[in-house]
Structures are given as structure tokens and as C-alpha cells.
Amino acid sequence: MSQGGIVRFEDELTLTLCGEAGHGIQSVELLATALLKDSGRYVFSTKEFMSRIRGGSNSTTIRVASRPVDASLYRIDILIPFDRAALDHVRRRLSPETVIFADEDTLTGKEIPGNPVTIPMPFRKTAEELGNVLYTNMVASGFIAGLFSIDEKTLAARVRGMFTGERSSLADVNVEAARKGSESARRLVGAGGIAVEIPGDPAVHDYISINGAEAVGLGALAGGCDFVSSYPMSPSTAVLVFMAEKADQFGVIVEQAEDEISAANMVIGAWYAGARAMVTTSGGGFALMEETVGLAGMLESPLVVHLAQRPGPATGLPTRTEQGDLNLALYSGHGEFPRILLAPGTPLDAIELTQKAFSLADLYQIPVFVLTDQYFIDSSWTIPAPRFGENAPRLRIVETKGDYRRYRLTDEGISPRGVPGWGEGLVVVDSDEHDEEGHITENHGVRVDMVDKRLAKYAAVRQDAQAPELYGPEDYDTLIISWGSTGPIVREALRRIRRPGTSLLHFRQVYPLHPKTPEYLGKARRRVMVEGNATAQFERLLRAETGYGARDRILKYDGLQFTVDELVQKFEELDESEVGK
């Protein structure tokens, strides 16, 4: 904010970078977030981008704070636009409190909306003086470091770390570009025009920077995943890439299949052979995998599916976000058989729930889904380093005897699972209805027994369900409901409005619901659903399963995630609608 002619930022600020694809915005983000973490600040960053390799306008927003932050803001405190089109792209987010640093020709011309503070900075000119306009992003990175008073030795070390091997000859000139950017910022700070007073926290030095894709991948590794297959599709491909990078270190087989059907069927085959396998995909890709989900249901095969949601139908908005595939996962595969749907909202959630997905799939021999979305996968957090147990994941595979029956009827519906080649027994599985030994049958009585056997697992699955998390007073009047990636955003918005009698019920497991869910919902006089789709899919599920729906719905389906500021406004509007009732 502006104080006595000085633009001063205390406690936190949001820094937005915007420009064409191909102009190196991601490089600035990666370097800037690393430097800010080095200085002890907490960092959360998120991005929105168009589905094109070159051109258009993409933006990254970096939230820097003296305390942990895990949600996105709509407002822009500092904007660095790399071209004139960037100003139009983010115009609704600009205000008189926004400070824009840009080349002079970017700032001149037609009036900039929002009446922001504009300060010319020769990013492009400095790069050209060094011999190549491509150095603009490095000048901007150095400028950010200078604003936050990050020392030039740390800056140079980080830049050099980006140029190793065959690219090492580029290190010196990029270090110089960053240094010049840093000098420009330091001169500005020294002249008293701007003050960034966000203190660092020494604890952050022991933290890690992690994005959603890495969190899902770490959870898979912790769960003992040793086989991953996929047909690339944004935004899920980032998980495939992470697992490929770690394949040699952790002994994981990573297969880029020829199509989505093959990718899913490979996972079934891997589990049948004794592996712990996962397929990572997005909505359009998963639509082709539904037959395999039904196959897993009939075979009673474990199956872990990471489904990174994006707007549909068809290709939809391939690089945007939405919580639109809940029903797709919930009702995928024909026939009736159990499944579990998990939905992380933070990186630690993703690590824990993905790890648990493998345990649940193995224990109950059913499909388990991990539902994320583009916002979650492409966002980055500063978090404490996760701790993993030293014990290897438990493998629930039996050595078969001569009288082994793959589908032996049991009270809980779970049969001993053997694998071919380990023991004397014959491990028979079939996509047709089958008897206890796995042989095809059309006996109507056996059919009933087998359906009942598969569905009997639900009793144990429900008892093992993750309980929803309640934030706020237990004697609430109004209950806000969220699931998945919206949770941290809703939580911060509620902290800001401090409305008495209002609590948040957040779901990390969306199916089956925890047995106490009706009790939580029934206590509220007013229920408000917040989710990122057009038809309130989770609200409809709650209504169907518990009889309690939500009269008020806050839905978003423009391809962007909610922001804290946006939800604060929505909640205040809800309060106003209650007046006079």
C-alpha cells in the first residue's frame, strides 16, 4: 500500500508475471520462488495459461508472505508485464494499489485500466545491451531478487545452477543480466520509492518447494508404486514426467502407452503380476479407460487412477481447471461394484492420500481414484519436508496352495489374492461372471453370490473412510462445504470474514462418505456448497447419500480456480441475503 508517497509492502504481497508463451515466464517463476524461499519467505504460486506453444497471454502469480500461505489471491500488488497485451489480459485485477514495473513502451499508449502506479524499468533494453532480448526474463528475475534484498551471491549461484552441462557457456551472461536487474531494483529501493518489508522465517530454510504433480508422485512412491503407465494428456502428464525422472532411483517402470486403453489395461496386468501400479490421466483420456474400470471391478483387481481434472466436454479447455469429473469417476464402468474417491487439497494431502490409495486398492481389491485438477497440479507450495516411515508398504499377496480359489466367498467379501507363479495354486481371473475358482459361469445363484460378495466390501470401506475435516466452531449455524483443491481457499476466506457461527466442512474423501457425514450436515441451519463445476456434483451426491443438500451454491466453471478475495465477496453477499429473513 502507499504510505506518504512510498509504496510499502508488509507481511505479504502478490507478484504477477504476464506475457506471451515462449517468453520465459516459467523460468522467472522457478528462479524467483527458489530465491524467495532461500531468503526465508513463504511462497505459494499458481499459473493460468492458454493451450498454445507461442503467443497469447499467460500469467503466473507468486504470493510471498511472512507466514504459511496455501491459497491464491485475485488482487495484484506488483505486476511485471512482458508486453502490452499482458495489461489487457489482467486488467480486471488491477487497482490503484497495484504497482507495475515494465519497459516504457509497454506503459505508454492507451490508458491502463485500474489507475495503477506505473514505474518504467528497462528490462528489454538491458537485455538488448547484453546482446539478446531473450535475457529479458533473467533481468526481471534479478529485479525481483533486488526488490526483496536478496544478496547477489545467492542470486548468482541460483542462476549458474540453471546453466550446467552443455548450457554452461550461457551462465556468465545470464548472471550479468540478473545482476543488472538486481541493481535496478536496489536503486529504486534506496531512493525510497518502494519498500518491501516482508520478514523471513529461519524455519523456511528446512522446508521444500513442491508442486501438486510432485506431491502426487511422492505419494505414489511412498505407496510402493513400481509401475506407471499413461498416454500423455495435460495436466496429468506432469505426474508421468516426475515418475520418469525418479524411475531409476526408485526402481519404477514407466510406460508411455500407445493409447489410453492400453495404459489402463497395462496397470491391471501389472497388479495381476504382483506389482503396485497406477495410471495417470485427465478427463478425456479417462473416458477411454472406463471399460478397464469395469474390468477391475469384475476381476476384483486393485487399480489406482490419478485423474487430473480439466474442463470438458471433449477437448474443452485443455489447460484450465475444473472439478467437473466427480461424476465421471463415481459412475465409470458399467455394473455395480465398489470404488473409493480421494481428493487432496494440499501437497501433504496428496502425499498422504496417494500413498493410502495403493494400500486401499490392495486391501479391498477395488479401483481407487485420486482426484486432482489443473490448478492443484500446476501450483507450488513451500511446506515442511514430509516424513516417510522406514517400513516398506505391506503387500497383501498370498502364496497359493493346491486348492486355491481366487474368488473364495468370505463374510467381508475380500478373497485371498495370489499371483501366478508363487505357490501351487492356479490363479484364474476372467471378465465374465465366474465361480469361486475363477471359471466362467452362468449359474444365477453364483451370480447373486458374487455380486453380494463384491458389494459386501462397502461395509468395511465405509468404516475405513476419511472423516471430513471441520474448521470453526462445533456449534455452527452455517456450514460451508468444500472438497479437494477448493479447501484451503475457502478456509482462508472464512478466516478473513470471521463470521460467528460459520464453519467449514471439507472433504478429502468424497466417496464413500464417512458414516458421520449426515450428523455434520444435519446440525446446520444453512448449508453452502462451494465447488468448481456448473451442476454442483458433490452437493447432489451429498443430497442423494444423506438427504441433506445445500440451499446455497457458489459454483465456478470459467476454467479458473476460486480466489480468496472472490470467496470473501461471495460470503459477504450471502450474509446480505440473510438480512430480513
Chain-wise SSE layout:
Layout (H helix, E strand, L loop, with lengths): L1 E2 L2 E5 L1 E10 L3 H14 L3 E7 L6 E11 L12 E4 L2 H6 L9 E4 L1 H4 L9 E4 L2 H7 L6 H12 L4 H11 L8 H20 L3 E4 L9 E5 H11 L4 E4 L6 H9 L1 H4 L2 E4 L3 H13 L4 E6 H5 L2 H10 L3 E7 L16 H6 L8 E3 L4 H18 L2 E7 H5 L1 E5 L59 H12 L1 H7 L5 E3 L6 E6 L3 H11 L4 E6 L1 E3 L5 H6 L3 E6 L5 H10 L5 E4 L8 H15 L3
Parallel strand pairs: 2-9, 3-6, 6-7, 7-8, 11-12, 11-13, 13-14, 14-16, 15-16, 19-20, 19-22, 22-23
Antiparallel strand pairs: 1-2, 3-5, 4-5, 4-17, 10-17, 15-21, 18-20
Task: Please provide a written account of the structure.
The protein has 581 residues and is α/β, with parallel strands linked by helices. The protein folds into three domains: 2-200, Pyruvate-ferredoxin Oxidoreductase, domain 3, CATH 3.40.920.10; 209-384, 3-Layer(aba) Sandwich (Rossmann fold); 469-578, 3-Layer(aba) Sandwich (Rossmann fold). It has 22 helices and 23 strands. The strands form four sheets. An eight-stranded mixed β-sheet has the order 8-7-6-3-5-4-17-10. It has a seven-stranded mixed β-sheet with strand order 12-11-13-14-16-15-21, with helices on both faces. Strand 19, helix 19 (487-497) and strand 20 form a beta-alpha-beta unit. The longest helix is centred in the N-terminal third of the chain and has 20 residues, at 171-190. The protein is globular. It starts with a strand and ends with a helix. The mean pLDDT is 95.
